[in-house]
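Researcher: We plan to redesign the surface later, but first we want a full-length starting point. Tokens attached.
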């Protein structure tokens, strides 16, 4: 169950589009909700999510994307520091979530890795507790989208399948703990960071 009811209407801003649908434009999480459902504005469909709709948020852990959302404009989720997983309506024709990671529906593009996904506590070289995670990208993915792992400072290892051909700009930017990245042998293009 989503605690979206904690988020009052005045905390969310929608922009009406020319076709009568809405863009999720901004949210202010003053009620410290941990789950967010982006689906409808009243009875009208939300079809896009703005480039920077969230201020720095340390509460939202789960985002549900409704069936009508077809456009994510840029760095949509990068300020959700506690985000652990995405869920997407099975009826959404554009996006899906696998193990909490956001992909295009055809699974050819990895769009966004949640910043706090699967954190495990381990000891560092000095005996201090640190939180880390590792991820294996599914076979069939061809593109790692711009800033897909942006600021995933806790991820230590990423394994990439040989199906990956394109790594877009800043895909791994500010992955400060990344120690091991297994690159696809079929990569044709790596954008400049």
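Model: Full-length starting sequence:
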């Amino acid at each position: 169950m989503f605690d979206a009811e904690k988020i009052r209407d005045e905390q969310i801003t929608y922009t009406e589009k020319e076709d009568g649908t809405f863009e999720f434009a901004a949210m202010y999480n003053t009620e410290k909700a941990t789950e967010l459902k982006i689906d409808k504005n009243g009875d009208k469909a939300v079809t896009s999510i703005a480039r920077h709709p969230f201020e720095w948020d340390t509460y939202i852990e789960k985002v549900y994307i409704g069936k009508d959302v077809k456009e994510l404009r840029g760095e949509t989720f990068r300020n959700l520091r506690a985000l652990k997983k995405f869920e997407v309506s099975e009826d959404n024709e554009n996006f899906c979530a696998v193990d909490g990671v956001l992909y295009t529906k055809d699974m050819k593009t990895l769009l966004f890795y949640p910043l706090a996904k699967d954190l495990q506590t381990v000891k560092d070289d000095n005996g201090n507790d640190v939180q880390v995670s590792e991820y294996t990208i599914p076979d069939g993915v061809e593109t790692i989208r711009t800033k897909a792992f942006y600021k995933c400072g806790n991820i230590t290892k990423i394994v990439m399948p040989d199906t990956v051909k394109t790594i877009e700009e800043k895909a791994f930017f500010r992955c400060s703990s990344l120690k091991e990245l297994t690159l696809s042998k079929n990569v044709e293009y790596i954008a400049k960071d």
